[in-house]
Amino acid sequence: MSETSETVAVDTARPAARAGAQAGSQTLSRGIRLLEVLAAADRAMSIDELAVSLGVHRSVAYRLLRTLEDHGLVSRGGSGLVSLGAGLAALAASVSRDLQQAALPELAEAADDLGMTCLLVLLESDEGITVVSTPPRRTVAVSYQPGHRHPITRGAPGKALLMELADTAWPPDAPAQLRAEIELSRERGYATSHDEVVASLWSVAVPLVLPGQPLAAVAAIHVSLPRPEPEIAERLHAAAAGIARALGA
Question: Taking Cα atoms as reference points, which of 119, 168, 170 lies closest to residue 146?
């Protein structure tokens, strides 16, 4: 009985403080979730849509937006639609800064050579997050903003990350047919996708494994493939090798 009493005493000794901590954690969690919803949507959203996605009242969503807006993490256009703010780019720039700086010139050159937007995608939990996106300078480009997230079970960059992960580290909900696809990707050295993350886009990606850096992938995306997949993959492997050299790997 005394053991139970001690537990109850710890749980209720400072109810106001505990309630405040829980409320603060919930608010922070909701704010982070709101940013994730916007990133996954890849479009501007209304406050009502965000409230439904978060499962909260519109007034709660509005308060979250005001706080995030004050920090430049979201912005609202004249129509009232909400999109990710420029402040996120400043935060993302500090993630694996050396890797990003090494990747930028290599990706820019590859993008111009291929006529495709080239990306650096890092593994974060069960998602791939784009940290560098470089469009070609002389052709029509696909816009793909840094900060975009998607499950690693979809899209060529995610599949390129799976190529380097042990099966036991895969998301538990990975479909069975994906394993056969990844085995083929491992054999040929690159992953591909079409119409999986963003409608109508083609993608080719290769893994990038560097000591002391997060698992990464180098990818190229476009509405069509200007070259055969093996040629695109070969150019991406060359970019990955250039990134490795720049980091002394």
Answer: 119
